[in-house]
Design goal:
With 793 residues, this protein is an alpha/beta fold. Strand 9 and strand 10 form a beta hairpin. Helix 11 packs antiparallel against helix 12, helix 22 packs antiparallel against helix 23 and helix 23 crosses helix 24. The chain is globular and about 85 Å long. It has 28 helices and 27 strands. It starts with 9 loop residues before the first strand and ends with a helix. This is UvrABC system protein A. InterPro entries: AAA+_ATPase (IPR003593), ABC_transporter-like_ATP-bd (IPR003439), ABC_transporter-like_CS (IPR017871), P-loop_NTPase (IPR027417). Keywords: ATP-binding, Cytoplasm, DNA damage, DNA excision, DNA repair, DNA-binding, Excision nuclease, Nucleotide-binding, Repeat. Belongs to the ABC transporter superfamily. UvrA family.
Length: 793
């Protein structure tokens, strides 16, 4: 007789309405691997992360006392009618790890903590507790008198306190020190009168500039190269000095400390693009001369085990470190060695053996960060847990995808429910159950298109089913390069004195297994060489877009500016009225469109503003119209509809707006609403929004880092067409990519390897895709041959 408990073998979701989901009903089998598919923006993340995982986390939080909940993030209940059968959800997402320089691969896992304990026990000379090997702990010494109360008497007692930490005092555990390239601050051959200062905001004639020309410390007509030692010191480093300039009391300060305070003290990501570009050029990060970039004090570096210091251990490739740990034989710390060896072996098993523990966490790609988070789960004894993954194959070479699939299946076979949002056919193929959402994106998505087996998906006729077997054929005719960027002796990270000519005027794809040195070549060696050759580089990475829920595609791309001006001109009023962040904002909700009510330790509640009905603007502002629409109606338009509205034959022809909208449509974002908050966009949408924003830049060399991340199979062809348009417009496009469709479409391929870490860093192939397939000696060549073989078949 079946037990009643066995009836709870599915997760039931009825009436899900989160974001663009349309009253969705699905039943997900437990203890199976379920893959969620659909075009970007179809509602996959809304269902898996914002509904199932969010409600699981909220219910777990409610099991704590009200006091404890007061210290936890408040989570609102998702918009769903019925959600039962949930188990504890462990979310392994692609959120980048913190960019704090003191956060490393070792500190982000348990590996560094265990190494510190190991060296505090076995290191010779003995330093002290584990904190003596921590680069986040400074050494402290203090002495003074403390008052001790004994009965009715008090007595002053002298005490001395000291703590030995492992932090390098020079760089404070950061491993690098910053320096300013003075050649970027001014042109030594010019005088101040001729505009010698090249810092943004120091335009000749402006107040910042007049501070120096009228200071009286040097002759503004004399070239800076001719300054005396004293004049140059006053110009660059003089301490703050009060003086009267042109009748106004001001504080004069040397250019270097002034630039440090006004520009370098700010968050780089919050800077305007032109200022950020200047900072990137002017500031150089050099390894700390005292600790050699290890972040550790001299004492921590001097204590060793078998001739190896903790700095040496952290600098080793993890696969090498695992072998070194395996060779240690010390019964007193045997349990610690076993745990450490297991953690390091997990790195190797998951394909991250090429990393080192001292690698800054902020330099990891989204895929690498996700796999680092997976390490904690590999040896877990938990069962009946729901694991939620967001495109776990991102950043993985086809050769490595098989290994990731094995890990997902192993988690399932331990009795867990595994939910995966994925686009790669290789991972979709291993699913026990597939849920396909769509049929389109945004307002055209959020519906269940298919639910069942992979075989059924192939025959279903849905967008995903039709494109599952897509193959891009090799180019019959490749473009001829117009020149080349000559890179010589590149040795960033694991590159081994690489010499390579990257062709210009064509589509070049850089390939290789994860950790082979692709990013080191493109981001480490390429920019300097391009600059020396007079080529301006536009790099579009995978960094997240900074923005609050008030930010949207219209504000991010600059589209709102011409729209506001057009509304103002048509109605004879100020442009600031048509910004929900300025004068036109609804006074009740301050332009947010919703009212947020904080309920202390309970989840906050967001309700639509009754004053503006969620439109974000004052009623008076909504009376002004452009082409028969008010500003809230324009911001509610999808990109494609707005293109017609602002087009030549539309209701409100506006070429400036149309150009930006065309770029958004070219990037495959025609379905996005102009006013949709950036916080609701998926990873793939954010990547393409950045790409659309960069399309207007004048750079001659475009560098893209895995632009297919988050792209559905049906959208890859559109991306390839966009890359072709860039090249045909005279740009040089360099793409770091693992997707075989992009490789097959390339004019030129540079393949790095043959392995990862110290097994990589070499050029193993250069040539056309057809030559790579014919060569067949590299891993990339093997997988590309199999891919195009499917196309031929």
């Amino acid at each position: 007789m079946a037990h009643l408990a066995d009836d709870h073998d599915v997760i039931r979701v009825h009436g899900a309405r989160e974001n663009n989901l349309r009253d969705l009903h699905v039943e997900i089998p437990k203890r199976r691997l379920t893959v969620f598919t659909g075009v970007s923006g179809s509602g996959k993340s809304s269902l898996v992360f914002d509904t199932i995982a969010a409600e699981s986390q909220r219910l777990i939080n409610e099991t704590y006392s009200a006091f404890v909940q007061g210290f936890m993030p408040a989570l609102a209940r998702p918009e769903v009618d019925v959600l039962d059968g949930l188990t504890t959800a462990i979310v392994v997402d692609q959120q980048r790890m913190g960019s704090d320089p003191r956060s490393t691969v070792g500190t982000a896992t348990d590996a560094h903590a265990m190494l510190r304990i190991l060296f505090s026990r076995l290191g010779r000379p003995h330093l002290g507790p584990p904190g003596a090997f921590a680069f986040n702990v400074p050494s402290v010494r203090a002495s003074g008198a403390i008052t001790v109360e004994r009965g009715t008497a008090t007595k002053a007692v002298k005490q001395t306190f000291s703590r030995t930490g492992g932090m390098c005092p020079r760089c404070e555990g950061r491993g690098s020190v910053t320096d300013i390239d003075l050649g970027r601050l001014y042109d030594a051959g010019k005088s101040l009168d001729e505009g010698a200062i090249t810092v943004p905001g120091y335009k000749a004639g402006g107040w910042n500039y007049r501070l120096y020309t009228a200071s009286g410390f040097f002759d503004p007509a004399k070239p800076i190269r001719a300054y005396t030692e004293r004049e140059l010191h006053d110009f660059l480093y003089r301490e703050p000095t009060r003086m009267k300039i042109e009748g106004i009391n001001m504080t004069y300060e040397g250019l270097v400390p002034r630039v440090r305070k006004s520009l370098l003290a700010k968050d780089r990501e919050a800077m305007q693009p032109h200022i950020r570009a200047f900072v990137d050029r002017a500031v150089t990060f050099t390894a700390c001369p005292e600790c050699g970039g290890t972040r550790l004090s001299e004492g921590a570096r001097s204590s060793k085990i078998a001739g190896v210091s903790i700095a040496d251990a952290c600098a080793m490739q993890i696969s090498d470190l695992a072998r070194w740990i395996a060779g240690l034989r010390e019964e007193s710390v045997a349990p610690l060695l076993t745990a450490l060896r297991h953690t390091l072996d997990s790195f190797v098993e998951i394909g991250l053996g090429y990393l080192s523990l001292d690698r800054s966490a902020g330099t990891l790609s989204g895929g690498e960060a996700q796999r680092v988070k997976m390490i904690r789960q590999l040896g877990s004894s938990l069962t009946d847990v729901t694991y939620v993954f967001d495109e776990p194959t991102t950043g993985l070479h086809p050769h490595d995808i098989r290994r990731m699939n094995d890990l997902l299946l192993r988690l399932r076979d331990k009795g867990n429910t595994v939910l995966v949002v994925e686009h790669k056919p290789g991972t979709i193929a291993i699913a026990d159950h597939v849920i396909d959402l769509g049929p389109g994106a945004g307002a055209a998505g959020g519906q269940l298109c298919y639910e069942g087996t992979v075989a059924g998906l192939r025959a279903s006729g849905t967008v995903t089913g039709r494109h599952l077997e897509d193959r891009t054929a090799l180019k019959e005719k490749v473009r001829t390069p117009t020149g080349a960027l000559e890179i010589r002796g590149a040795d960033t990270h694991n590159l081994r004195a690489v010499d390579v000519d990257i062709p210009l005027g064509v589509l070049t794809v850089i390939t290789g297994v994860a950790g082979s040195g692709k990013s080191s070549l493109v981001h480490g060696a390429l920019p300097g060489q391009a600059e020396a050759a007079g080529q301006e580089v536009v790099a579009i990475g995978q960094e997240a877009i900074r923005g609050s829920r008030r930010s949207n595609p219209a504000t991010y791309t600059g589209l709102l500016e011409p729209i506001r001006k057009a509304f103002a001109k048509a109605n004879g009023v100020k442009a600031s009225l048509f910004s929900a962040n300025s004068e036109g904002a609804c006074p009740q909700c301050n332009g947010a469109g919703v009212i947020y009510t904080d309920l202390a330790m309970m989840a906050g509640v967001a309700t639509t503003c009754e004053e503006c009905e969620g439109k974000r603007f004052q009623p008076a502002v909504l009376e002004y119209r452009l082409g028969g629409r008010d500003i809230s109606e324009v911001l509610a338009m999808p990109v494609e509809q707005a293109r017609e509205f602002f087009g030549t034959g539309g209701d409100a022809p506006l070429p400036a707006a149309r150009r930006i909208l065309d770029r958004l449509a070219d990037a495959g974002l025609g379905y996005l609403s102009l006013g949709q908050p950036l916080t609701t966009l998926s990873g793939g949408e954010r990547q393409r929004l950045k790409l659309a924003g960069h399309l207007a830049e004048r750079g001659g060399v475009y560098v893209l880092d895995e632009p297919t991340a988050g792209l559905h199979l049906a959208d890859v062809a559109q991306l390839l067409a966009l890359l072709d348009r860039l090249v045909d417009a005279g740009k040089s496009v360099i793409v770091v990519e693992h997707h075989q469709a992009v490789m097959a479409h390339a004019d030129y391929i540079i393949d790095l390897g043959p392995g990862a870490g110290h097994d990589g860093g070499r050029i193993v192939f250069e040539g056309t895709p057809a030559e790579l397939v014919a060569d067949g000696t590299t891993l990339t060549g093997e997988h590309l041959a199999a891919y195009v073989g499917g196309a031929a078949g």
